[in-house]
Amino acid sequence: MNDPYKKGMFKANPYAKKKPLKGNLVVVLDGKYDERGLQLIPQPSRCLVADEVHEIILTDEDKKPGDTVNKIAYIGFFTVKESTVIIVGDEVKINGQVIGKIAGFDETHMPNHYNIVIYGNDRISGNERSLNLNDEVIIG
């Protein structure tokens, strides 16, 4: 396989323009772990397709693609409204509240769903944030 990300071919962000992702929470999660062991893939982007469901997990560890993430809080699952691409560094908002920025992607549960790992200052779960079903998710 000739993966341009693994070979370090991109010296700058190649995404000149892209649509933000819009979706809605379908599950609000509660729980935290200090030794989760999520393995972020080396690729900094993922294509998400309309009507797919994916998980948002927050960490307060400053990690990048290829790293392992241990300290996490579960936020929730959301549905994708319209197909798009999301990338490391994209800001994640739920109901207008900034949760953090994408640190990377874990494929533990693929092909069922991606774990989208967000870096933020406060390791607070979705339930502790008083999030609700159908809350709007915007990534971009």
From TrEMBL:
Domain DUF6917: 15-139
Pfam families referenced in this protein's UniProt entry, alphabetically: DUF6917
Record-given protein name: DUF6917 domain-containing protein
Organism: Tepidanaerobacter acetatoxydans (strain DSM 21804 / JCM 16047 / Re1)
